[in-house]
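pasting for the record
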Amino acid sequence: MNNKDEYDYVIVGAGSAGCVLANRLSADGKHSVLLLEAGPKDTNLWIHVPLGYGKLFKEKTVNWMYQTEPEPGLNGRQVFQPRGKVLGGSSSINGLLYVRGQHEDYDRWRQRGNAGWGFDEVLPYFKKAENQQRGADQYHGVGGPLPVSDWRHADPLSEAFVVAAAETGIPTNPDFNGATQEGAGFFQTTTRRGRRASTAFSYLRPARNRSNLRIETSALAQRIVFEGRRARAVEYRQQGRVRTARARREILVSGGAYNSPQLLQLSGVGPADLLKSHGIEVVLDAPGVGNDLQDHLQVRLVTRCAQRVTLNDIINHPIRRVWAGAYYAAFRKGPLTIAAGTSGAFFKTNPRLSTPDIQIHFIPFSTDRMGENLHPFSGFTASVCQLRPESRGSLRIKSADPSMPPEIRINYLATETDRNAFIEGIRILRKILAAPALKPYAVEEIDPGARVVSDEDLLSFCRRTGSTVYHPTSTCRMGNDPLAVVDQRLRVRGIDGLRVVDASVMPDLMSGNTNAPTIMIAEKASDMILEDAR
């Protein structure tokens, strides 16, 4: 490899968005594409086993393993922030749930001046990406790169949760990604025949042998090189050497909600005072870069189970554990196909709301912290997640050194609306867990426990135990206002030849899991980029 190489497009980050871009931009053979990934190839066995996300939660070889600064709303605790550092990015280590959000999320984006981003306009890209196991219909597509599948393990607890929700008045919903999100049902996952389908698997693997696509791993981007206000090249470090890749057309930053604003700031695009304080030459004073950080907080309720039907019972029993592994190896079914939610629900904490503001993830196991050992007793977990938090945070570089983690401040529970949503969400969840369908299973609430009932005590529990659902967004927000970082075609405002394509461009956090929307964004961006190249 020469020290200086030139391509039509240089993509920084081979994650949920970057792999999509690499596939689509190289598909017609007309454009040369370089894809840079800071992490390794996706050869770790646990990447491909759905339940393996628990093993990867703190696996530093494939995980950036970020931490927030002390969070004032969470009693000064730092919150662990796993992010994928491997081909496929976070789609290689996430909980696999395929949830698009609400139609109203995207219509809200359009109403805020982002033309082309309403639900009717993004739906074709969701369908284009999708290979839906259930077949095509008004809302779903087949034949796309991304497999979307039903769960391959019968679990009485997860089924009982859906029935229990119906008993409390929450309707059963067979498709959270269909006509409406509201209701209780089963999550679909980005899996194919019981194996994880990351974007590295779905998009990059079919394209990796194209002569016009080059993939470089263990390649950490150092900075974007500008000529005036045009992005011209990317400097990256690989095997101890700093290399330069020039872009004839565009540089596409797809590092995610943390790494994309970090790279822009390291390159001189960001708040001028911050950049000057670290000795970085200011290319463009863009105070919005790193602003508006949003994330989903979750608060988990743990219940002791009366029957030995939980994953705790399988993992903690040597014979059952071996059986589960053998069964998965033979049939790609069983407990090892469990994602980060089996069944769940979307509901409103206030009838005056037009759409649900709470998501419940139900899983048939329990633990003190994700990524740690399961409880020694039979237990299951249901978590409350507020879908549209008002709290806003920021990301700032701490140094001009690209290898130093950035300063992450999310400001969880900073507003009264956010705090009240969790209090009411826990109360509604408790009604579900006490419904007749779960009576044969639910013995007692372990955490927070029956004594925690007042608003003050419930909020205290949220502050003491709340953690992330791993959905950071909006740090390079799309819009037309002075703090917006990219325009509606995802071009960095005030800079030529540079776009950001990932979850960081979302105008605000959508009402669900962020992986499917990020893939949609990259699908739509690919079309825009190719249109602009004509």
